[in-house]
């Protein structure tokens, strides 16, 4: 359906037959990240107007899943992993390893492209930052966040997520 395909075309604009054809013609890669780390990143980028992380989290919880902004909306509601058969799911924290595999599969020179790329420091930083930010939250907020992201936590393996407990 090239006549309907443009960079700004949303998948929802196609009918079911067209969606199947479009999705079947692409290699589908889904990048996933621990929902708590997504919240921290969103807060750190100043995408919320809250003065503290705890008040930002409360704003997120108060918005509810239906009115949530894309930056913190549960991934399952954005990418529909139960409906779309992704060819690859790449986890934040294993990017170097998984991107090398993807680039090799695509026949691209992965060693030169990823030689400077490392996510070990990123993992350590987010681990430390997650611990600090999580300690700011009340027990009620922690429970509500775990419930808010329950489908993401069930769909993807985030073994070290603070929300998994």
From TrEMBL:
GO terms for molecular function: sulfotransferase activity. GO terms for biological process: carbohydrate biosynthetic process; dermatan sulfate proteoglycan metabolic process. The keyword Glycoprotein applies. It is found in: Golgi apparatus membrane. Keywords: Carbohydrate metabolism, Glycoprotein, Golgi apparatus, Membrane, Signal-anchor, Transferase, Transmembrane, Transmembrane helix. It is a single-pass type II membrane protein. GO terms for cellular component: Golgi membrane. The keyword Transmembrane applies. InterPro entries: Carb_sulfotrans_8-10 (IPR018011), P-loop_NTPase (IPR027417), Sulfotransferase (IPR005331). Its main location: Golgi. Its EC number is 2.8.2.-. Belongs to the sulfotransferase 2 family. This is Carbohydrate sulfotransferase. It comes from Herpetotheres cachinnans. The lineage of its organism: Eukaryota, Metazoa, Chordata, Craniata, Vertebrata.
């Amino acid at each position: 359906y090239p006549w309907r395909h443009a960079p700004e075309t949303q998948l929802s604009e196609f009918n079911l037959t067209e969606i199947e054809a479009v999705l079947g013609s692409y290699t589908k890669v889904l990048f996933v990240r621990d929902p708590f780390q997504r919240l921290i990143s969103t807060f750190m980028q100043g995408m919320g107007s809250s003065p503290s992380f705890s008040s930002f989290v409360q704003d997120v919880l108060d918005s509810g899943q239906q009115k949530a902004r894309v930056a913190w909306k549960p991934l399952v509601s954005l990418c529909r992993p139960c409906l779309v058969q992704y060819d690859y799911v790449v986890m934040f924290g294993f990017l170097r390893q998984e991107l090398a595999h993807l680039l090799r599969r695509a026949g691209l020179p992965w060693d030169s492209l990823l030689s400077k790329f490392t996510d070990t420091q990123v993992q350590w930083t987010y681990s430390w930052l997650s611990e600090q930010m999580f300690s700011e939250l009340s027990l009620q907020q922690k429970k509500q966040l775990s419930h808010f992201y329950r489908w993401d936590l069930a769909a993807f393996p985030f073994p070290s997520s603070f929300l998994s407990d």
